[in-house]
Amino acid sequence: MALEDSDCCSRNMCGNLRPLDIKIIDCNQTEVMKLSRPLACQGCCFPCCLQTMDVECPPGTVVGRIEERWSILTPKFDIKNEAGETVLKIKGPICQCNCCGDVEFEILSADGKAKVGKISKHWAGLVSEMFTDAENFGINFPLDLDVKVKATLLGALFLIDFLYFEQK
């Protein structure tokens, strides 16, 4: 289960750009992972303060970071390990509209040349898409990928959801 920790003022004033912590809890109600995102602007007009999210697993131990890269047309993110080295990249589509189809964000190798996986926002049907704020995501990556990088990719999924699919 994922639980958001943010204040009422931030949710109402900053919308999907609000600072937040997300606690990932297992079936024994133990916090196994924490995602932290500070307040930052979004868009091509503000290349000096792009989105970031730190991933702690277990809470208190940073295992990775997601950093938005400046881009005019397509969403781009770097997946970094605990040493701050880029281990993967994510590139999104020009249009994040999901009219009758899935929206896919490609997970690329560190050099950006080879596709190694994807994060997909699945089309849930017209009624669900129009009248609810619920989304269905899928994530694919190599089985032999380091578990810390897998945890960071899960954090990237949450960041992508907040930035592109949460109602503003």
TrEMBL record:
The protein's required cofactors: Ca(2+)
InterPro entries assigned: Scramblase
Keyword Lipoprotein: yes
Residues of the signal peptide: none
Keywords: Calcium, Lipoprotein, Palmitate
GO molecular function term, any single one: phospholipid scramblase activity
Any single Gene Ontology cellular-component annotation: plasma membrane
Biological function: May mediate accelerated ATP-independent bidirectional transbilayer migration of phospholipids upon binding calcium ions that results in a loss of phospholipid asymmetry in the plasma membrane.
Sequence similarity: Belongs to the phospholipid scramblase family.
Protein name, per record: Phospholipid scramblase
